[in-house]
């Protein structure tokens, strides 16, 4: 059985689990420190959702970022990742559905996300959940 919950404490065990998942998200993803994890857990704008099994092992996660702007509350979903051994069992969908419920409770008008085209399963999931490709330009300015 899978349980979805909001991460509310930073421990070394949680840190190890997250650092195990991050390289499965992107080969360039670097591990985070306990201080960074604590900063995320304590953030008013970032909600880390985790999916755990009956042994409380973290098998997946996502980040829901909620922004209050003059035109309303908006959100982004980032860093959606499910452990390779747990894929195809509905965990990604469960994480996304929990994020939708949480966002609605927070008065969010819309949720945006990006996904590399090579992540075919993830893109299929997002489309099945009602996400549509936007006609927009996404710009990035890097600070080296």
Report on this model:
With 144 residues, the protein is an alpha+beta fold. Helix content is 33%, strand content 27%. The protein has 4 helices and 5 strands; from the N terminus they run E-H-H-E-E-E-H-E-H. It has helices at residues 12-25, 34-42, 91-105, 120-128; strands at 3-6, 46-52, 58-69, 72-82, 108-112. It has a 5-stranded mixed sheet with strand order 1-2-3-4-5, sandwiched between helices. The protein is globular and about 40 Å long. It starts with a strand and ends in a 16-residue tail after the last helix. The mean pLDDT is 95.
Question: Order of strands across the widest beta sheet?
Answer: 1-2-3-4-5
Provide the β-strand percentage band: 25-35%
Mean pLDDT: 95
Order of helices and strands: EHHEEEHEH
- Using the CA coordinates, give the radius of gyration: 15 Å
Count of runs of 4 or more consecutive helical residues:
4
* Content-based structural category: alpha+beta
Termini Cα gap: 43 Å
Instruction: Write down how many β-strands occur, each being a DSSP E stretch of 2 or more residues.
Output: 5
Low-pLDDT runs of 5+ residues are none
Notable features of this structure?
alpha+beta
Quick overview of this protein structure:
The protein has 144 residues and is α+β, with helices and mostly antiparallel strands. It has helices at residues 12-25, 34-42, 91-105, 120-128, and strands at 3-6, 46-52, 58-69, 72-82, 108-112.
Q: What topology does this entry show?
A:
Layout: E1 3-6, H1 12-25, H2 34-42, E2 46-52, E3 58-69, E4 72-82, H3 91-105, E5 108-112, H4 120-128
Parallel strand pairs: 4-5
Antiparallel strand pairs: 1-2, 2-3, 3-4
């Amino acid at each position: 059985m899978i349980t979805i919950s909001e991460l509310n404490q930073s421990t070394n065990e949680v840190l190890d689990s997250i650092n195990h998942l991050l390289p499965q998200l992107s080969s360039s993803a670097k591990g985070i420190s306990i201080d960074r994890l604590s900063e995320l857990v304590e953030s008013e704008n970032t909600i880390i959702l985790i999916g755990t099994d009956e042994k409380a092992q973290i098998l997946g996660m996502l980040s829901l970022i909620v922004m209050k702007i003059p035109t309303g509350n908006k959100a982004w979903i980032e860093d959606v990742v499910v452990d390779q051994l747990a894929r195809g069992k509905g965990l990604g969908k469960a994480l996304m559905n929990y994020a939708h419920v949480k966002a609605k409770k927070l008065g969010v008008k819309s949720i945006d996300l990006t996904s590399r085209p090579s992540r075919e399963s993830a893109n299929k999931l997002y489309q099945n959940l009602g996400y549509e490709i936007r006609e927009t330009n996404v710009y990035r300015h890097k600070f080296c």
